[in-house]
Design a protein that fits this description.
The complex is a heterodimer of chains A (145) and B (390). In chain A, a hairpin with a 6-residue loop joins strand 2 and strand 3 (44-52). Chain A is of the alpha+beta class. In chain A, the strands form three sheets. Chain A has a four-stranded antiparallel beta sheet, covered by helices on one side. Chain A has a two-stranded antiparallel sheet with strand order 5-8. Chain A has four helices and eight strands; from the N terminus they run βαββαββββαβα. With 390 residues, chain B is α+β, with helices and mostly antiparallel strands. Chain B is globular and about 70 Å long. In chain B, strands 3, 4, 7, 10, 16, 17, 18, 19 and 20 form a nine-stranded antiparallel beta sheet that branches. In chain B, strand 5 and strand 6 (83-85) form a beta hairpin. Chain B has helices at 10-18, 27-45, 119-127, 298-304, 335-340, 358-375, and strands at residues 24-26, 48-50, 53-56, 61-65, 77-80, 83-85, 93-97, 132-137, 148-153, 160-168, 175-177, 184-186, 189-191, 197-200, 219-220, 223-226, 229-236, 259-264, 273-278, 282-290, 292-294, 312-317, 332-334, 342-345, 348-354, 384-385. In chain B, helix 2 runs antiparallel to helix 4. Chain B is built from six helices and 26 strands. Chain B has a domain at 10-53 and 168-227 and 235-261 and 298-376. The chains are: A alpha+beta (145), B alpha+beta (390). The interface between A and B is medium-sized, with 22 and 32 residues.
């Protein structure tokens, strides 16, 4: 099973079309909405986890691009600054994928980047701002710059 | 107290520390010792139990004297890194409070605010050795003619810096839940709607005042681990409430006692004083505190043997009840339940998340043990006990 997270940017002229619905029906791709910011007359943004056979996900993405949706892949781009983190555990109550979890009985706060969906909820919740998001593109740009 | 089989004094324990014979264990280690040997035997064998807690603690701050300048200056308004401090003390004495936000912080205008920098962060920057900029204005007097001052300094440059926290180390605290239908942002963290998560903030069995529930040993002059350095209990804290309801073991089941703590900021570390930003609430300071408890008799040995299963707190709704002062709760849960990751509220299983670092609390208790064992850290003899409700 292929599972990846994408940032989809919808042009404002397409915002009222049932695009994701078609992705499911015609390409047999399941989805999990991580974040959605959709306003009529404006560009929409959805962070979506796509789950399915790799070929289906890829043809589904081609379909999205063909209707004007900008597709960006999210790498597991959340990082934890272990010097800042004091392992309080506040993030574990808000992390939707258990990428941030508590090891018991020690009560150590663990971060598993493999499970991270990149939703970014932990960034603002962390009391010492130890979590930082870096999308793949931005990392590349920084490296190039 | 006359019926105790074991009777030791703090002076006797200090003599044993000086001769390297004192037996010191952490509050976690004490649990199995009391269970296996009983309180009397534990009291004979153990001299000191070390505790620890590391979590956001509002009501923290620092007194700073930034030194006289020429021409002389008397601060009327003053800010450190653009965080306002209180200057109404004397010419160059100020107090910087942990929850003070930066002057131009947008606060909650775009909700929930981020509160990225405040008084707690200034204190962290100082103990980290980073330079801090003071900007002040005065109204000018014959003896203090200077009307404005901009001055950069590090902690080492300051003539005097005292961490002075009017309320730390809360003896127990609420478990917070949100029963409304929208997410709320509180000093207890982000609480999801309809009671889908719960937060709590205590080190439980490692927490200082839960190991000495009636303040039999902790008083004015108790020497402690504070912010990575040495500090003292200097009074009971604000909101100290020894009359809070208690369980049969004497441990309060509601927020109860508190401590006022002081220590020289110059010997503290940014590992143990951290500026905190609570989304939608504000800034504060995470403070590391460890209190050594002298095992003077078997009653105190029994108290320090307390475990998470025997410490309870109430579940409080922070969407309505807390803010409206309604004394209602949604049941009591133990810290063993809370630390398991799930509790039951209104018949539903709810995920829990801590705000207090158990890993760091344990490290403080271990550090304090090492200070006593290796560095001859002696216990302070209290000159006055805290109000205990009797």
């Amino acid at each position: 099973m292929y599972k990846r997270i994408y940032v989809l940017k919808f042009p404002k002229e397409n915002i009222d079309r049932p695009i994701i619905c078609k992705l499911v029906k015609e390409y047999d791709v399941e989805f999990n909405i991580i974040k959605a910011d959709i306003n009529l007359q404006q560009e929409g943004l959805i962070v979506l986890e796509l789950i399915g056979r790799k070929a289906n996900v890829e043809t589904g993405l081609s379909y999205l691009r063909s209707v004007g949706v900008k597709v960006e892949k999210v790498a597991a781009g959340i990082r934890r600054d272990d010097d800042k983190c004091f392992q309080c555990g506040a993030c574990t109550g808000i992390c939707p994928t258990t990428a941030l979890s508590i090891k018991r009985p020690e009560m150590a706060v663990l971060f598993d980047p493999e499970k991270c969906s990149g939703c970014g909820l932990c960034v603002a919740v962390c009391p010492v701002r130890a979590m930082a998001v870096c999308l793949e593109e931005r990392v590349a740009l920084t490296a190039a710059g | 107290m006359g019926s105790q089989q074991v009777v030791k004094s703090i002076e006797e324990i200090n003599a044993r520390i000086r001769s390297g014979e004192a037996v010191v264990v952490t509050a976690e280690e004490m649990i199995s010792i009391v269970r296996k040997k009983g309180a009397v035997e534990a009291a004979r064998k153990i001299d000191v139990v070390t505790t620890g807690t590391f979590s956001p603690m509002c009501s923290s701050g620092a007194f700073i004297n930034f030194g006289h300048v020429t021409p002389t200056f008397k601060a009327a308004k003053v800010a450190l890194n653009r965080v306002p401090a209180y200057g109404g003390l004397a010419a160059v004495d100020i107090y910087i409070g942990a929850t003070e936000p930066t002057e131009d912080d947008p606060l909650n205008k775009v909700f929930p605010g981020e509160f990225r920098y405040g008084g707690g962060h200034v204190i962290e920057d100082l103990v980290a050795g980073r330079e801090v900029v003071l900007e002040g204005s005065g109204y000018g007097t014959d003896c203090y003619p200077n009307r404005s001052l901009v001055k950069s300094f590090t902690l080492a440059d300051l003539p005097f810096a005292l961490l002075c926290n009017p309320r730390n180390c809360y003896q127990n605290y609420n478990c917070a839940i949100n029963l409304s239908d929208k997410t709320i942002y509180t000093y207890m963290g982000t609480l999801k709607a309809k009671g889908r998560n719960a937060t709590y903030c205590s080190a439980g069995q490692l927490s200082p005042m839960l190991n000495d529930p009636y303040y039999r040993t902790i008083g004015l002059g108790t020497r402690i681990f504070l912010g990575g350095g040495e500090g003292y209990v200097t009074w009971h804290g604000t909101q100290h409430n020894p009359a809070a309801p208690r369980g049969e073991n004497g441990v309060p089941v509601r927020p109860a006692g508190t401590l006022m703590l002081q220590g020289d900021l110059k010997q503290m570390s940014s590992r143990w004083l951290k500026g905190i930003s609570m989304q939608g609430y504000g800034c504060t300071l995470a403070v590391g505190v460890g209190v050594p408890i002298p095992i003077l008799n078997e009653e105190i040995a029994a108290f320090t043997g307390v475990s998470d299963e025997e410490i309870f707190t109430q579940v409080v709704d922070y969407s309505h009840d807390y803010s409206h002062g309604i004394a209602r709760n949604y049941g009591e849960v133990s810290y063993a339940d809370l630390k398991s990751g799930r509790i039951e509220v209104n018949g539903k299983s709810v995920q829990t998340a801590p705000l207090s670092s158990v890993v760091r609390a344990r490290e403080i208790a271990e550090t304090l043990k090492k200070w006593i064992d290796d560095d001859g850290f002696e216990l302070g003899v209290p000159v006055k006990m805290l109000p205990n409700g009797t």
